[in-house]
Specification:
Elements: H1 2-31, H2 41-48, H3 60-67, H4 70-84, H5 92-100
Helix pairs in contact: 1-4, 2-4
Amino acid sequence: MALIRLALRTVGFLLIAAAYAVFVIDSTRVIAGGPLVAAPFEVVVAALDPGAALAAPVGWLWQWLLGAPAFAVLGLAGIVLMLLGRRPRKSPLAAAESWRA
């Protein structure tokens, strides 16, 4: 179980780092005098796999996801994976019982 949590946290961290990189690239374009436009997630998917078929397997949800800003999609996916990979909290009752023993 610990290895799965480590893998989730690692992939989540890498996704957050990728989101930060895309955000920096978008910010650099704006600072250079370009319009305030965030790269859509579709551009990132196409850059990673040029032959990817971006057909709509789920319909409107898939199209919405591909049109969303890439840094937001990557960042949210990374945060979700980091939260899924965190350690479970000890309950306050378990801590109190270990103190009495």
